[in-house]
Specification:
The protein is mainly α. It contains two helices and no strands. The longest helix is centred in the middle third of the chain and has 130 residues.
């Protein structure tokens, strides 16, 4: 029975093994030109893979958190923008209502003021017209009274002058025929006495 070279203790080296001067192991025929990997190196590689996976998971979780944060910020910004929009719309509506009420009140007070001004102007006009009419009436009455009194005074003065003239006129009577024997004129008039000089 023949023994194999390995069993016989003979060293059988391949040309690759001779060039690399590596010790011959039973697993060296399967690495196909790659460096041999031990169990510790495989565990370290798995640890690196798991660490990379954990880092990727953390990164994915961080990315999801950031996306959720930005989405929440976007919705919060949208909420605040909508709130500000509706608040501004309500403010503008209230301001428009207040302005309309103010203008309506101003128009009412202006109308009331003009109505009062027209009333007082009419009242003053009618009062002035009544006053002037009364003044004209009383002036006319006073004028006619003055004319009447002037006429009455003129008539009284004329009568008085006429009476004075009649009193101062000489008494003459018409004589028929001769004078009486005593030389006095007939008619009962007293003799005219010449003033003493």
């Amino acid at each position: 029975m023949k023994k194999s070279p390995a069993e016989a203790g003979l060293s059988h080296k391949t040309p690759i093994q001779e060039r690399s001067a590596l010790p011959v192991t039973p697993d060296d025929s399967s690495h196909q030109g790659l460096l041999p990997v031990g169990k510790g190196q495989a565990a370290a590689g798995l640890n690196v893979v798991f660490a990379a996976g954990a880092a990727g998971a953390v990164g994915a979780a961080g990315a999801a958190f950031l996306a959720a944060f930005f989405a929440a910020g976007f919705f919060a910004a949208g909420f605040f923008a909508a709130t500000a929009f509706f608040a501004g719309a309500a403010f503008l509506a209230g301001a428009a209502g207040f302005a309309a009420a103010f203008l309506a009140g101003a128009a009412f007070f202006a109308a009331a003021f003009l109505a009062g001004a027209a009333f007082f102007a009419g009242a003053a006009f009618f009062a002035g017209a009544a006053f002037l009419a009364g003044a004209a009436f009383f002036a006319g009455v006073a004028f006619f009274a003055a004319v009447f009194l002037a006429g009455a005074a003129f008539f009284a003065v004329a009568i008085t002058i006429s009476l004075i003239k009649l009193q101062r006129a000489p008494c003459c009577s018409i004589q028929h025929g001769d004078s009486p024997p005593d030389g006095l004129p007939s008619g009962g008039c007293p003799p005219t006495v010449a003033p003493v000089q």
